[in-house]
Amino acid sequence: MDNFLTELGIKHEITNSCTPEMNGVAERFNLTVLDGIKTLLKSSEVPHKFWGEALLCFTYAWNRICHKDSNKTPFEKYSGRKPSVLHLKPFGCLAYAGVPKRIRKKFDMRAKIGIMMGYAQRTKGYRIWLIDENKLVETINVKFDENKRGINFRQKVNSNLGYNLNLPDYYDDEDDSDRAKDSLTSRLVSKTSTETPSTSEKPDVSSDNHSLIPCTEVKWIRNIGRKVTGSNVYYSIEGEATRLKSFNEIERYCKRHNIKYDPSLFNFRKDNTESQGFSDLSEQQEALMVEVTIP
Length: 295
Fold this sequence. Notes:
GO molecular function, one term: nucleic acid binding
Strand content: 5-15%
Order of helices and strands: HHHHEEEEEHHEEHH
Strand order of the largest sheet: 4-3-2-1-5
Helix content: 25-40%
Radius of gyration: 37 Å
Protein name: Retrovirus-related Pol polyprotein from transposon TNT 1-94
InterPro entries: Integrase_cat-core, Retrotran_Ty1/copia-like, RNaseH-like_sf, RNaseH_sf, SH3_retrovirus
Shape: rod-shaped
Number of strands: 7
Number of helices: 8
Largest sheet: 5 strands, antiparallel
Organism: Trichonephila clavipes
């Protein structure tokens, strides 16, 4: 070590043990750096485990500003040219790291949310902490929102994802009716729960079907559509866009919505225009509704 330092023209001085005051310049800078690290971590609310990143970011900016003992920056004294400060960004601000097109899939986002942690050490760019992937990347393809903290924005996004918006599931009319999510069961249960049962009719608690909704209480609508081949008869529910085109679909629908299935109420023959699942004439007339497709 001594020979190496001598070749470089460096005079190696050794201090006594347990006497930090002999190395006053380094000790004073350590105090300055410590204050800078605490300020960066506190203002950005970044976890303390990233104190090393805060140290590198602080020294990078410290070497590019003037100090009271000189009109030149440490970078200018070392390299002989003035540094640029246009690329400096706040530590911990919100960052959007771009994803290259060659590694991006069709439905992937064009950028990933991250936090600015410092500046690249060997390349021209920034160090970005991708919270979702829990890793640090160095990239120059990044945009910053200097007025927002990355930690606060990430927490806000996570809280919004936890909201239950109660949005209905998308389904197609031609798909199976099991995918349709509606409030039919809740409406019928609330209706039957408010009614007081008569003393003569006592429900059988031991029966497995005591909680099922009678199929006659559901207002089924028999529709006849125009179709070249196959059956053109289907059943629907009042107030819904569900189409049930076979006995199997109706049975699955009743099982899903806690309805007691009665196959005698349905008829898919095209020549039969009567509907046996309704109690009065007005409901039968409504069941004979015909849908006409305008070409």
